[in-house]
């Protein structure tokens, strides 16, 4: 059965169902009028759902549909829109470096995502992608090294891939595959630092679907807001991507590499290119990403509440830097005298304007000090707005395993039914022009569905 992109904006006639109505109605599988399962239909569903790793529905109902699938593509670009034409040309310029990957346990698919070819030798090519590709399904803090990885190339061919390096803190992985002369490595060093100096930067997120091999692109701008994901080094764009775009590149209109995309319901988080480059260098130098622990959670000043900004402006009108959102008890930062609400303006005498600059400098210092076996003291210049007080402190960082500190959830694939548009986690149906596959009633002719495929 094809995975189709249709245009419905609601699940059933008469509009959506409210949370109150939903709460008062029984589950579909418990209703007395639930239609009986049809053995042939159930077998067909099992053949098509299980190899993709998707759940079976509780029952069979006309209009039910599967949401948050890996087959859902980005929104279609208008062929007559000048801006969309630029987006498509930009996507085409890097298309020979964009692949899709899938991991399998036996014959069952576990995850799919996008990857970017970032390096090559005469015999192999390296693909930068998301570590979600190889995480254990029952314990996301561990890697399942028994998974088989398949790579769909830009020409549609599928070849095996092998995991080389990964980092669970940043959720990145590098997969190696056989070299092909017709495909080239993307220039990820042609990058732009994403910061407050580029508030209106136009960005393009690119992905490739695994089953169809379709190249996808969508545009947006840089957002100065925090993401729901744990990793504090992430930035956010307004590009709306689907799960298939996880691990794909984010590039500027000038062709510059901005970062790698992840998926969330509050915008598209991305790991900035400067941090990705440092991680790849750590892979080559240390075999892993060496992440010192300072015991701080920091954020951009631009993302703080107005009251916080007013308090800072009253004490230090021309202040810049990064905001301390949390100090962990017993941490190196706590021992240095740091407190929540402090503003760090310099790190080792280098002025700071964003949290990403802070983390990049930390990784820079890690490269030099770890190679010489030295300790890692960081000198910070601090403003304390409440007391109009400024001071310097030394934070003696510790190198610890931070791989389990960040969670990287992705939207779950699930079935929804005509009377079940909402659940406790929020809306399940997105009002976009290319929603997920809507499963037909068992009475509908499946051959008719095949003929309607675009």
From TrEMBL:
Q: Please note every region of biased composition (Basic and acidic residues).
A: 28-41
- Ranges for region Disordered: 1-56, 419-454
Q: Can you name this protein?
A: PDZ domain-containing protein
Specify the PDZ domain's residue ranges: 295-352
Ranges of biased composition (kind: Acidic residues)? 442-454
In terms of PANTHER family, this protein maps to:
OS09G0436400 PROTEIN
